[in-house]
Each structure stands twice: as C-alpha cells, then as structure tokens.
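Hi R.,

Quick one: here's the Putative Cell division control protein 6 homolog sequence you asked about.
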Amino acid sequence: MKVTDVTGDAGVKETEEESKETDGNLFKDILNIRHNELNNNKIFKDKKKTTSDYIPSKLPGRENECNDLASVLSDAFRGDIPMNIFIYGTPGTGKTSVIKRVFDEMEKFQRANKKSNVEVITKYINCREKATSEYQVVLRILEDGRLKNIASGDSGNPNAQGNKIYGDKLDGLAVEKLYEFLEKVLKRGKIALMLALDEVDAIKKNSDKDRVFYNLVRMNSDLNDDSENREEYNFNTGITIISTTNDMKFKEKLDPRTRSSLSKKDMFFERYDVPQLEKILEERVKLAFYEGVVEKSAISFAAGYVKKTYDGDVRYALNLLQISGEIAEKKGKPKVTYEEVKKGCDVLNVDTLNEWIKRLYRHQMIVLYAVADAIFKKKYKRLIDIQPDAILSGEAYESYEEKCKIIGEKPKTMRWFREYLNDLQKCELLALSESGKGIRGNTTIIGVGKYYTPKEVVEKVEKLLFGDEIQKEKEEKIEEKQKEGTEEKI
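And here's the predicted structure, written out as tokens:
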C-alpha cells in the first residue's frame, strides 16, 4: 500500500519538483525521450539507410553509369562473355554502389528467368579487405557459397553433378591448384562469373596484379575450347572482371602481355557536384528519416560543405547526414536544421580522419605518423624554405626509420616506402609534389593532406598505435606537474 501512495498525485508532483532542481537526472532524461516519442518527435525511421554500405534502388547522378555497366554485362545472358571493365574515379564517386546495384539486378533477372541456359554468378571482392595478393583473390573466389555447392557435386544444377572438386580446406594449397579448381567448377556448372575486384590497386605486388588478370583472362579460352560443348549449350562459360581503381595509370603498370590479352571497356566516374549531392541526400532522407524532419536548408548546406571541403565525396555527405540526425535526436529537437548540420561538420572532420587511419596497413600508418610528427615538431630546419609545413622525402624516410625503431618494427625498403607515400596521397592523407628551383637534385616534397593538420594526424595515429600507453603517459605528466605546483607552494 505504501508503494501505491508513492506513485500517487503527491508523489508525482514531488518527483517533478525534484527533477526541476536536479540537472542530468537519469529518469528525467529517459522520460523526456519517451515524451518526445509520444509526441511523434522521432528523427530516424531507419538509420542504417544513411550509411554508404546501404545500396538503394535509385542512385541519383549514377543512373547512366548503371545503364552502361548493365548494357555491357547483358552479353552474359545472350551466351557471350562480356568485356572486362575498368572503372576509374576518386574515392566517394559511387563506383562500388554502381557495381553492387547492377550485380543485384543481375541476380534478380537470373532468378526470374530460370529457363535460361546461362548460369550467371556475381562475386564482389574488396581487394583491400583480405585480398591483397594473387593467392587471396583466387581463394576468395573459391569461397563463394554457390561455387562451393557446385564443387561438392550436390548442387541442384543438373549440369553440376559429379565428384567433389574441392572442400572447405583450401588454405596452404599452391595457387596453381586453386586456379585448377576454379576452372573445373566453372566448367562443371556452365558458369558465367561476373567478378568485381574493387580497389584492385590494393593488391600489393605488381607481379600479383599481372598474374591475376593474365591467368583469369587466359582461363576463358581454356573453358571454351570444346566446340561440341559450345554447340550443345549455345553459350560460353567464362569470367568477366570489373575492376575499380583510383589510379589512372593502373593499366600502364601491367605487363604488355597482360594488357594485350584484355578485351576491355573503360568507365570514368567524375566527382559529384552540389545538385547531385543534394539529390542523393534528398533520396536518403526519404528512406532514413520521418517525413518533414530534415529541412531543405540543412540538405543544401550539407551538400555545399561536402563539395567544398571533401571534393564531393558522397561518403562524407551521408556520414554528415547521420551525424546531424544524431545531434538533433540527442538534443530532443523535432527537426534537423542548418544548425545541427553545422555542428555535425565539426564532428565529421574528426570521425573521418579516424576512419581513414584505421583502414591503413601498419607500415602505411607508421609512415603517416613519421611525416606528420616531423612536420608538427618542426624537426628539420633548412636555409631554403621549401614550403610551410612540409619535409623532403629523404627526411621523411629518416623519420620513418626512427619511428619503426621506437615501435619495434623492421623498416621497409625505400621502394616500399615510396609505395606507401603514393597510397597515402591517393586517400589524401598526404600531399606530394616535386621539388623545384632552389633545391639540389630531384626530390619529393611531402606535407599532410589539406583536410587535416599535422597535430590532428599525430594524435589520432598515436591513439591507434599506442592506445593506453599514451593515456597513461599523459596522466603521469599531469601528476608530475601537480606535484611540482604543490612543492612550489610549500
């Protein structure tokens, strides 16, 4: 009975008065959130649809590219092997989204046309994620569930019956054996494999890049050398490779024999402009937010800011949209306005740097750290001023060797060091330029990318490389200063 009295009118009034007096009361915050929900002041309808991983059915600014890619790949349904395709474009221009959208449409078309003699399988591989060598690329292909099913001999495909070609244990086998398995399973299933190698320049060795393209393309002729098979099934088994890269000179670096074997089409994705970014954000707002929550001025400001600050990289635009919605949600605001987006810009600059750095390989991270730290601490002084906040390539390598010694890593060779510099330039974490007059010899001038300061980079990398050690060191320094202050007073 006493419990019932506490929840009566007097109890509620008392609780309200106490809540007014107490800032940050746990139940006050919870009840405010519930109050907002009851009043329909919700922000997100489906938050995951603000992410770049979600691929919507509409891709504003890239519908033409979707149609072009689909047009080339449609040859597979006519019984021919489509041309290989190279897609060029800077990060955030929609290359991955277009491929995934077209692949999804291919799979849907295949399911709706079961009578077709063609068995099309799409396989997407991001080379930066566990496919940085020839061996890993072929391994990732063979790990596809549908190919494994065909290899087992138990597939529902009438053409795929027979003895097991390979099982689950593939690690440790010679790469030649993996290619043999792939050829056998494609031939058994009468498969047209559409293979996407996203960020193909992440394959580390140039020799591996050559062998991947050369061996996969050459396999097509081996798969279709049986004229009787071609007559019976009226289509070609084979592989089409769709590659994406930020490097406009990627093909030039391939061996001439590999280049000559590639029947290919090139596609170029330009950076998004402000109207295209606005259209993309408008479509995502319809999918991810409740109606009327995001103001038009907020979308316009976000698009303009991302174009100016991040050269129209759509990933930043989508991230900013989500951050702005979260700010409004946290503050209990009913709408996402220009003000929330403006606050979101500050959060975005920190978050994106952290995400970029986390994607780097360890030695790429050390090179970035070495350059940023040398610039931040003004380690190198010279009589001739090259440019503010920059060092020379020789100085950068010296700093890199020093950092490796501190971290306990063996430094890579100068050749690998240059590769890392180029990789960091591609993702705009570093800026490289050739030396001009006033500097002896030919060298490279290195600075931190235009979006970040050396101090920001150093702090982020140190946190990822050293973690708790840095925090402990900072706490120890604070304690020392406090002790010094106490001693002075005494």
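Residues 380 and 395 are 8 Å apart (CA to CA).

Cheers,
M.
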